[in-house]
Amino acid sequence: MSDNSHHPHSAPSPSAGAAPGGGPSGTTDFGFRDVPVTEKKSMVRQVFDSVAGKYDVMNDVMSLGIHRAWKKIFVTELGPHPDLRLLDLAGGTGDISFGWLRGGGGPAILSDINVSMLAVGRDRALSRGLVSGLNFVAVDAEAIPIADCSVDRVSIAFGLRNCTDKLQVLREARRVLRPGGRFLCLEFSRVQVAALAPVYDAWSFQVLPRMGAAIAGDRESYQYLAESIRMFPDQETLAEMMREAGLERVTYQNLSGWIAAIHSGWRI
């Protein structure tokens, strides 16, 4: 399930692999903009406050529905088992936690820094009868209020790119994992198929913001989301960050022409 080969890729942006931001002193990326580190979390919170109600619809639009297949692969990789406990970081409206529980996984903590997203996730859980074994917690992934060595799996799907200090998130994920526990990240990545690149760019920067305006009444938030994908570290850079955070046996699998990737690491 892993892909450790060295694929050709463009160099990451200056801010991609640094903590907290890597831009000029005291700044970090917010899409293509440099903003003060102290302001990014509130800016990201505003984005997801705005999009929460339409988030699931827009996920289908953004990925042409392919995100559903990616998430199924991701949940399978998590390996749900009744004896395992999951911490779902940036869990938003609940897709990963729901898949975990439906797959026979043990207790899950659905966490997100954004209470608007958690509220949508809670409503979706109630409508699906998936409340048992599921806790909803407002959590900053850079400072997880959970004891060391307390969960068996940590997941983050389409959330790491919105975090200010990505390396700190990875360190926190390792800290809360029990020995033998596994961290998995699903995220949009760097397209490596040359023929796809111009189509992907046109979709991201021309079509997507217009759809955001039409469907969610919010062009700017979806412009940010498209830009944040481009600012995220490439596959090899993220793998190296995971190793720096102390995770071991780091691998990644590319999906759908390298549009997305699943990264895996273990606490040994």
From TrEMBL:
CDD domains: AdoMet_MTases
Catalytic activity: a 2-methoxy-6-(all-trans-polyprenyl)benzene-1,4-diol + S-adenosyl-L-methionine = a 5-methoxy-2-methyl-3-(all-trans-polyprenyl)benzene-1,4-diol + S-adenosyl-L-homocysteine + H(+); a 2-demethylmenaquinol + S-adenosyl-L-methionine = a menaquinol + S-adenosyl-L-homocysteine + H(+)
Keywords: Menaquinone biosynthesis, Methyltransferase, S-adenosyl-L-methionine, Transferase, Ubiquinone biosynthesis
NCBIfam families: MenG_MenH_UbiE
BP GO terms, sorted: aerobic respiration; menaquinone biosynthetic process; methylation
Region Disordered: start-end pairs: 1-33
Annotated residues for binding of S-adenosyl-L-methionine: 93, 112, 140-141
GO-annotated molecular function: 2-methoxy-6-polyprenyl-1,4-benzoquinol methyltransferase activity; demethylmenaquinone methyltransferase activity
PROSITE patterns for the chain: SAM_MT_UBIE, UBIE_1, UBIE_2
Protein's UniProt name: Ubiquinone/menaquinone biosynthesis C-methyltransferase UbiE
Function: Methyltransferase required for the conversion of demethylmenaquinol (DMKH2) to menaquinol (MKH2) and the conversion of 2-polyprenyl-6-methoxy-1,4-benzoquinol (DDMQH2) to 2-polyprenyl-3-methyl-6-methoxy-1,4-benzoquinol (DMQH2).
Tree of life domain: Bacteria
Recorded metabolic or biological pathway in which this protein acts: Quinol/quinone metabolism; menaquinone biosynthesis; menaquinol from 1,4-dihydroxy-2-naphthoate: step 2/2; Cofactor biosynthesis; ubiquinone biosynthesis
Similarity comment: Belongs to the class I-like SAM-binding methyltransferase superfamily. MenG/UbiE family.
Enzyme class: transferase
PANTHER family per the UniProt record, alphabetical: 2-METHOXY-6-POLYPRENYL-1,4-BENZOQUINOL METHYLASE, MITOCHONDRIAL, METHYLTRANSFERASE
EC annotation from Swiss-Prot or TrEMBL: 2.1.1.163, 2.1.1.201
